[in-house]
Specification:
single chain; mainly beta; globular
């Protein structure tokens, strides 16, 4: 069996292009440690923040703020787990989980709240079964 180099090369980009055009709902968007973003972010999928963001963040999926992650601005998401730092308003339609290393200051509106011993929170918190943040869109 023999292959032409042009035959192999011409087939591979077609399959890669097809894969790149497909949306994978299980892909997690990552803002890595050492990355700094100024501006607003909007996403239909899940997000993990290990870097720093100054601006508003809006996602229809799950948000994870890692231990090195810092966000200053308004957050709207479906569910959220915080191990890092957040300053601003936080609207979570389902579960907000504050881990032991988290530092959160500002206003929280959430459906359910879980706080580990050691977590720091300064501000106000409202728990409600009513839609918050993303459901109003």
């Amino acid at each position: 069996m023999s292959f032409s180099i042009f035959e192999v090369l011409s087939k591979k980009p077609l399959s890669m292009a097809k894969l790149n055009n497909e949306i994978n709902p299980q892909v997690i968007n990552l803002i890595a440690k050492g990355t700094q973003i100024t501006g607003n972010i909007s996403s239909d999928g899940d997000l993990r923040i290990d870097g720093e963001i100054s601006g508003d963040l809006d996602t229809k999926g799950r948000l994870v703020i890692g231990a090195s992650g810092k966000i200053e601005g308004e957050i709207k998401c479906n569910s959220c787990e915080i191990s890092g730092t957040h300053k601003g308003k936080l609207f979570v339609s389902e579960l907000l989980s504050l881990k032991a290393t988290s530092k959160v200051s500002g206003e929280i509106v959430t459906g359910k709240l879980s706080i580990e011993p050691g977590a720091y929170f300064a501000g106000t918190c409202t728990m409600s079964d009513e839609p918050t943040g993303n459901e109003f869109k």
